[in-house]
Write a structure and sequence with these properties.
heterodimer; A: 170 residues; alpha/beta; Rossmann fold; 8 helices; B: 192 residues; six-stranded parallel beta sheet
């Protein structure tokens, strides 16, 4: 499977550097290594979700309890979680660190991913969620830390889009 | 059984616990019984109170967390039962008041009114302890047992579809949110 193990390791290390203790996730191809890393890490509680919207509740609970969390989701999972992002995270000023695999964008070969790819950025903009496109492995640590810092300072969700050129090795 | 009587009966057991409620009638009823700063009323995001409770329970393993859910909310997020069952935090007590109705939005009947069995779904999802209560006595026994133990418990309580005269709560959403954080910080300090 040509999902980059090396870059997944860099991303995981960046989450650890942010003192993330709870990671909620729903598996998708680009996220497999990250999810395995979380599963094998005794310092992290991995919560495997039935649906991404649960993850918004779990992160909200963790934040109010003073524990850092992150969400690993595909962009279709982000789309599935919009109501709780609006009516929990935005309503109650809950910071969310969302790492979103950006399927359906340039280079996508799977037709079924393409509508979600087209919808992702307009919806992030509509929700006023600051977004960073993560492409460069040398940039990962800095940007994920910056994303968390902004989320906590603004008490607002932030999105880090994990791009094809970072996650996939063709 | 009226839900407000049920809440009153369990109030002494839950008043010192971290509590997350769903929106609407039940939030207002608990608030009127006596607000505590470690009570959080999730006034939207239907279905997510149990997920918040799971996040709190995983983040604060030394503290008991009580979720007060409802049939309409739980039906919106049935997957939560499988996720809670999977991680089964022993400090989480999930109370579901089932009035077979979306009472806060006009009283339309939910699927539990036509036979959907939430306790059965919880059991089949793997929740390790599932209790049912049709009387105040069964409820108080169940809640005491769940709070005394270390087993994730879902307690389904059948109640009448009758709510409070007013849903007014003199507590801003963000006021509640920031109070709750402070209260949890204080609870954590106390334990240390």
């Amino acid at each position: 499977m040509p999902v980059s193990v090396t870059h997944s390791r860099v991303i995981y290390a960046a989450l650890k550097a942010c003192d993330v203790r709870i990671i909620s996730a729903l598996p998708e191809t680009w996220l497999v290594h990250l999810i395995r890393m979380a599963e094998e890490d005794p310092e992290v509680t991995l919560v495997r979700l039935a649906k991404e919207e649960e993850g918004i509740g779990i992160s909200a609970g963790a934040h109010l309890a003073g524990v850092n969390s992150a969400l690993l989701m595909q962009n279709h999972g982000f789309l599935a979680a919009i109501n709780p992002i609006v009516s929990l995270a935005l309503l109650y000023k809950i910071p969310l660190l969302m790492l979103i695999s950006y399927r359906g964008s340039f280079g996508e070969k799977d037709p079924w991913q393409t509508q979600g790819g087209l919808a992702t950025e307009p919806i992030l903009r509509a929700l006023n969620i600051p977004t960073w496109h993560l492409t460069d492995p040398d940039d990962v640590t800095r940007r994920i830390k910056d994303a968390q810092t902004l989320a906590h300072a603004s008490l607002h969700p932030v999105a880090v889009l994990l791009e094809r050129e970072l996650m996939w090795e063709d | 059984m009226l839900r407000t009587d049920a809440l009153q009966a369990i109030y002494p057991d839950i008043e010192d616990k971290i509590v997350v409620t769903i929106m609407g009638a039940v939030a207002a009823e608990l608030y009127m019984l006596g607000h505590k700063e470690h009570f959080f009323y999730l006034e939207h995001a239907m279905g997510l109170a149990s997920s918040m409770g799971l996040g709190l329970a995983l983040a604060l393993p030394e503290h008991k967390v009580v979720v007060i859910d409802g049939d309409g909310s739980l039906l919106m997020n049935l997957g939560t039962l499988s996720t809670m069952a999977r991680y089964r935090p022993g400090n989480l007590v999930h109370i579901v008041f089932d009035n077979e109705s979306l009472l806060s939005v006009g009283g339309f009947p939910t699927a539990t009114s036509t036979g959907t069995d939430l306790a059965g779904i919880a059991r089949a999802s793997g929740v390790p302890s599932v209790l049912e209560a049709n009387t105040i006595e069964q409820l108080t026994t169940g809640v005491s047992q769940a709070l005394a133990g270390e087993t994730l418990t879902t307690l389904v309580v059948k109640v009448e579809a009758i709510g409070p005269k007013t849903f007014f709560m003199d507590l801003g959403l963000l006021e509640n949110r920031f109070q709750f954080v402070r209260a949890l910080e204080a609870m954590k300090q106390k334990k240390v």
